[in-house]
Design a protein that fits this description.
The complex is a heterodimer of chains A (about 700) and B (about 150). By secondary structure, chain A is of the alpha+beta class. Helix content of chain A is about 45%, strand content about 20%. Chain B has about 150 residues and is mainly beta. The chains are: A alpha+beta (about 700), B mainly beta (about 150).
Chain lengths: ~700, ~150
């Protein structure tokens, strides 16, 4: 069987499984009695094992199998996981993640499971001494079957022959036992449970204590892939003699006697005696049941290649362009039927558009999943007590946005843990609860999604930041004293500044907040930070819900079309109705609720100024507002954004282009770049350096 | 194809009084000229952007780059050139023909000062300047710095 075509799916699912496992293990550490989570872990580990075995990644399968043993142990106890056990399991998950990455990179699993398996076995061994665990593995299947018969149970002997072409007989044996466990307790099985992984034979045998009809049992066994033939017979006390059992050895060439398990190490067998085998059987039954539930769920969901979704989006964009073109062409044609038809076209295409958007939406939880583990690891390493709260996990946003959000968020979380939250003593001294609180919250706000990382830590110390900046030569020593929190935050975002000690492996990865900001801005979003000394810091990422289609106000600046994303526009005003003043040679707009820089559109976008600019759009960008004087407000448009060649967008506050209904190209205004200090300083420049002086504006001021 | 010399297919066009050519494999298509949407660029030969089936493509004034003068006429075309990941349009006065030229017919440019030019072919009375598609997009940093 060529498995290469399943590789992308394997990788995607393996990653998903590992992430879920990470999450579940951390959750279990917090609440050891959480039975559903434990069952979930078992189920995920089991399917991870199955699929990696199917793909021929034996090291992964081997390790997950061993992990399953540990989880099995947990299921039998209520005392919860020891710290050691959690660390070991998490170490295994890390190794598995690395193995999956190496598979993607080079096609082979770079994993040496032996040391980890040894650690896992150590766990099993140390806990084998506990009373809750199983009895000793004395019994071969013969005694087990006899014992079952002695209790008066009806025992079925199932012999399944696997197809000659079977790729992973071990996996099939597993599946077979799981299927049989649906019918009752597995009294015994060949290969024995602890030997399944090394099973390479073609014949699988099991004894099931069941009241099910033989045919029914045979049917469920046949349903397992690669099972060629199944015979089911009831075992009677008379017909069953201990001599019948070794018959299995004849058939399964590689089937070893269960007793040989002892050679692998007594400890190993200690965890998996006959009773444990039965336990595993029923556990697999539970797994099988949920797998069945999962597969019926799968029938309603389809995995689609992300590239196809992108292509769909792209085509949708074309359709929107063509539709608006048709709409524009029909204006003024006095044919009611045509207008009716166009209206229908518009309606359907809008419905289609929103559907395509929805298809691309995935819950932000996909990004959040990694944080419980990350926070656990970091807080342990840093010796801090941290409670993580995730809010708005089902907030949906565009897949491309979700994909790009991971790294910036990880950085913010690392920052909070590393610099924000204090160690327990320091918190108590400050009169705060010893456990720090980190909240990651997502919510929709208009056409944007806002994701906030908030901690109740010590907050930003402007002096500390200032001194660091001075050390790096970003700031004059004198300027440090006058630095306020806002200024300090601006410094944090400066390239080349990172408060992280270079030695720290927490946030000091050579990545600073400037990279976070750059990344978020690339996505058409913004990141702002606020902090209160002693009370905490909050970083807020605001992103458009979708990157591909924006609702924008089309404006005209000096004869050329531009578009400003609607969610960045506060309002539009007439200059004549407000007063304009000059501060340090720069024009400012004086509104009831504040004084904002006033920029001339033509100057900002490097065009020859024309006509009067009575209209001003108040735009939010970065963490300030600015006024942008424009020639004309054309109207609201749904625009399909396209990247601009860097050679033409270089240095201008534009983030992309969009083709309008008439074929013209509108440039999409990058509001953050527009409102940046650099831009406001240069474009808002001194009146005498500007191409046109604004005497009319001064008159307004005089009038006001 | 596999004769002793290699032949190249070239798209030949005029700029002012001179003839230029680009390898046909780099010419994506040729469209009728229309005024590109102007953008403020620090580079004088960046004329703006056009939309090519929804994609936004920069348009360069090749004449200005080669120190020729030309005015848009009815014959003016935009040649869409592709190199690797990049696509751009260059404005030409008119597209003449597609010519097959033997490699041997090319000579180095006398005093080869231009990094835009790959070679010159003399065909009959005509002198055809072969351009390097890669440099139509390259040297931007140079151009900006200049």
């Amino acid at each position: 069987m060529d498995t290469s075509e399943y590789m992308p799916m394997f990788l995607a699912e393996a990653r998903e499984h590992l992430q879920e496992l990470n999450l579940a293990v951390v959750q279990l550490e917090n609440d050891p009695a959480d039975r559903p989570t434990l069952d979930q872990i078992f189920r995920i580990a089991h399917s991870l094992k199955g699929m990696s075995a199917t793909m021929g990644f034996t090291a992964i399968a081997e390790l997950t199998h061993e992990m399953e043993e540990v989880f099995e142990l947990l299921r039998q106890r209520t005392s919860g996981l020891s710290q050691d056990a959690v660390d070991t399991v998490l170490a295994c998950l890390d190794a598995l993640s690395e193995a999956v990455e190496s598979i993607e990179a080079g096609g082979t699993e770079k994993l040496d499971p032996a040391p980890l398996i040894e650690r896992l076995r150590q766990l099993v061994r140390s806990s084998a001494a506990e009373p809750a665990v199983t009895s000793s593995p004395e019994g071969s299947e013969a005694t087990a079957v006899r014992a079952a018969l002695d209790t008066g149970a009806r025992v079925l002997h199932v012999v399944a022959v696997l197809d000659d072409e079977v790729q992973m007989p071990a996996v099939r044996a597993h599946m077979l036992f799981a299927a049989l466990a649906d019918h009752g307790e597995l009294v015994s099985n060949i290969p024995a449970t602890e030997l399944i992984e090394s099973f390479h034979g073609r014949q699988v045998e099991a004894w099931v204590a069941s009241t099910s009809d033989e045919n029914e049992v045979a049917r469920s066994a046949t349903r397992v892939s690669d099972v060629a033939d199944v015979t089911v017979a009831e075992v009677t006390v008379d017909s069953y003699s201990p001599a019948a059992a070794p018959a299995a050895d004849r058939n399964g060439a590689a089937t070893r006697d269960p007793d040989s398990g002892d050679h692998d190490g007594a400890g190993d067998a200690g965890g998996t005696g006959t009773q444990a085998g039965a336990g595993a059987g029923s556990a697999q039954a539970a797994g099988g049941a949920s797998a069945a539930a999962a597969s019926s769920h799968n029938a309603r969901t389809v995995r689609v290649d992300a590239e196809r979704l992108d292509a769909l989006m792209h085509l949708m964009g074309e359709l929107v362009i063509h539709r608006t073109a048709v709409e524009a062409l029909t204006v003024g044609i006095g044919k009611p039927e045509l207008h009716h038809a166009v209206e229908n076209l518009t309606r359907s295409s809008q419905a289609l558009q929103s559907m395509v958007m929805q298809v691309r939406m995935i819950p932000v939880d996909v990004v959040f999943l990694r944080f419980p583990r990350l926070v656990r690891d970091l807080s342990t390493k840093l010796g801090k007590d941290v409670e993580l709260e995730l809010l708005g996990r089902d907030t949906e946003l565009d897949r491309t946005v979700v994909d790009a959000l991971g790294d910036p968020l990880v950085h913010l979380v690392r920052n909070s843990l590393d610099h924000g939250l204090e160690p327990p003593e320091e918190r108590e001294n400050a009169g705060k609860p010893a456990t720090g609180k980190l909240t990651i919250a997502a919510r929709h706000a208009g056409g944007s999604v806002v994701i906030e990382v908030r901690d109740d830590g010590r907050g930003i110390d402007p002096q500390l930041v200032g001194r660091k900046a001075a050390e790096k030569g970003l700031l004059d020593a004198e300027a440090v004293a006058g630095l306020d929190t806002r200024g300090a935050i601006e410094l944090l975002f400066t390239a080349g500044f990172s408060t992280a000690e270079t030695t720290s492996d927490i946030s000091g990865r050579g990545v600073g907040m400037d990279v976070v900001r750059t990344k978020i801005r690339e996505l058409g979003g913004e990141v702002v930070m606020e902090s209160t000394r002693g009370a905490g810091t909050a970083a807020q990422i605001r992103l458009p819900l979708t990157l591909a289609i924006v609702s924008a106000l089309q404006i005209d600046v000096a004869g050329a079309p531009f578009a400003i994303p609607i969610d960045r526009i506060e309002r539009t005003i007439r200059l004549a109705e407000h007063s304009v003043s000059s501060v340090a040679g720069r024009r400012v707009l004086v509104l009831e609720d504040g004084v904002l820089p006033l920029l001339e559109g033509a100057t900002v976008f490097g065009r020859e100024p024309t006509g009067n600019h009575d209209l001003v759009v108040i735009v939010r960008g970065g963490d300030r507002r600015i006024g942008l004087a424009v020639d004309e407000l054309v109207g609201q448009r749904e625009l399909v954004t396209r990247p601009l060649p860097s050679i033409v967008s270089d240095g201008q506050p534009v983030s992309g282009g969009a083709v309008l209904a008439d074929g013209q190209i509108a440039l999409i205004v990058d509001c953050d770049a527009l409102a940046s200090d650099k831009n406001v300083a240069s474009a808002g420049g001194h009146p005498d350096r500007r191409p046109e002086s604004p005497p009319s504006v001064e008159t307004h001021l005089a009038a006001a | 194809m596999s004769e002793e010399t290699h032949a190249r297919q070239l798209v030949v066009f005029t700029l002012g009084s001179e003839q230029y050519a680009l390898p046909i494999e780099h010419v994506h298509e040729i469209i009728r000229y229309y005024e590109p949407r102007s953008v403020a660029s620090q580079i004088e030969w960046v004329r703006g952007v056009i939309s090519l089936r929804g994609k936004i493509v920069p348009v360069y004034d090749l004449a200005a780059r080669l120190h020729q003068s030309s005015e848009p006429s009815d014959q003016t075309k935009i040649v869409i050139v592709e190199t690797g990941a990049e696509t751009a349009g260059v404005i030409v006065d008119d597209v003449e023909e597609v010519l097959t030229v033997e490699d041997a017919q090319f000579e180095d440019v006398p005093g080869a000062d231009s990094e835009l030019i790959d070679g010159i072919a003399k065909i009959g009375e005509r002198l055809i300047v072969l351009l390097k598609p890669s440099t139509i997009f390259a040297g931007l940093e140079l151009a900006i710095a200049a």
